Amino acid sequence: SDSLGPDGSAKGVGVDQELISSVPSWNPTFVERNYTDAEATYCRSQPCPASSFAARWAGKEAVFKSLGVQSKGAAAGMKDIEILPNESGVPSVTLHGEAKAAAEQNGINRVLISLSHSETVAIAFAQAS
Amino acid sequence: SDSLGPDGSAKGVGVDQELISSVPSWNPTFVERNYTDAEATYCRSQPCPASSFAARWAGKEAVFKSLGVQSKGAAAGMKDIEILPNESGVPSVTLHGEAKAAAEQNGINRVLISLSHSETVAIAFAQAS
Amino acid sequence: SDSLGPDGSAKGVGVDQELISSVPSWNPTFVERNYTDAEATYCRSQPCPASSFAARWAGKEAVFKSLGVQSKGAAAGMKDIEILPNESGVPSVTLHGEAKAAAEQNGINRVLISLSHSETVAIAFAQAS
Q1: Contact check, Cβ <8 Å, C127/A127
Q2: C64 lies in a domain?
Q3: Which of its termini does chain A have fewer beta carbons within 10 Å around, N or C?
Q4: Chain B residues within 8 A of A14 when measuring between CB atoms
Q5: Is C3 in Cβ contact with A8 (below 8 Å)?
Q6: Is C86 within 8 Å of C50 (Cβ atoms)?
Q7: Does residue C2 form part of some domain?
Q8: pLDDT string in tens for chain A (129-residue length)
Q9: Which residues of A touch B112 (CB under 8 A)?
Q10: Which residue numbers of C have CB closer than 8 Å to B's CBs?
Q11: Which parts of chain A fold into alpha helices (H)?
């Protein structure tokens, strides 16, 4: 595709914000559908689990946008976008299933992510290259 | 310039946030001056036109910052920075006029953009390479 | 490290947001500990110094995240991350001390930054390559 850059350059970026109160992480069905077991365990171990779930949700949305594929809303398979701290504590993205396939189709090898939350709002930025 | 990176690497980034209520998209003169016809048509077709106009405004500001040129405030020629969905629905930047000239002068070939809005705030991120 | 990209590509990104009211720039000890003299002089020369200090604080946090090193909280040496406008007025990052050493260790040659603030919130985005 002529929208892809040279090797190593960014192919897409994504930004997202979420009100922490709008992410229903108190709902086990929502968590089960959208977070991997490792993500849920990590978020529940944090000082404020609701904030961690919301930041990760914003992160998944930002990653999705960075992949440059058509949004499918609630059907987007957010569980296929896994965000966990690496050994240095830096949030790192692993793609599974349809998200992984979409990335490969668009020549994307790597997605960088950063998360931030205040008391009320979570924001995330992703860059796919 | 020694501030430019190697080919393909980012040359500038830009972030911006706007209160949706602070972008006067109800004002035809403001819209005419700052949005292309295609942008205005697109925003008015969206479920919440005010949010779309505001997100695009934040996007134009973020693109402007990413170009690394001196801010000219209201005179910056925001209409020269056009943000429209591509065939996949991904927001894409086209530069015209002075913005295009500034990009070329700084060796910028491409600007990636992402937009997000909550009920009250629009944010945008741009990356120029 | 296999987490590093090819030359010129991004190695890390960082996003941060801060409530302007939560950054105690009225406190000379806080400013002296976290800002260089040039930063403090610049922020105090701006129309709204509190907003400039807060945007710069968000910027320092974002840069820190982009370096991919373990957070050390208040001990992170925020003064080692200096953000000042370049000759075009574009915010530019200079690293000193431990931040510089961490960047070199991770093969990072350059950090791009963008700052934004509304009346209440400052946000920042950083990209390390």
Answers
A1: yes
A2: yes
A3: N
A4: 114, 125
A5: no
A6: no
A7: no
A8: 334 445 567 899 999 999 999 999 999 999 999 999 999 999 999 999 999 999 999 999 999 999 988 655 545 689 999 999 999 899 999 999 999 999 999 999 999 999 999 999 999 999 999
A9: 10, 12-13
A10: 7-10, 15, 86, 88-90, 92, 110, 112-118, 121, 123-127, 129
A11: 28-34, 37-44, 49-66, 97-105
Is residue C31 domain-resident?
A: yes
Q: Is the dihedral of CA B46, A21, A65, A69 positive or negative?
A: negative
Q: How far is CA C2 from CA A75, A94, A110, A114, C20, in A?
A: 32, 14, 11, 19, 38
Question: Chain C residue with minimal CA distance to A113?
Answer: C13
Non-local (6+) Cβ contacts of A7 within 8 A are: B8, C6
Which residue range is the domain that position C118 belongs to?
12-128
Contact yes or no for B69 and C88 at CB 8 A: yes
Does a structural domain hold residue A43?
yes
The number of domains in chain C is 1
Q: What is the CATH number of the domain that holds C43?
A: 3.90.470.20
Residue that the structure tokens 């295009």 belong to: B100
On the question of pLDDT at C105 being above 80, the answer is yes
Tell me what pLDDT residue A70 has: 67
- State how far residue C126 is from chain A, nearest Cα, in angstroms: 10
Is residue C128 within 8 Å of residue C67, measured between CB atoms? yes
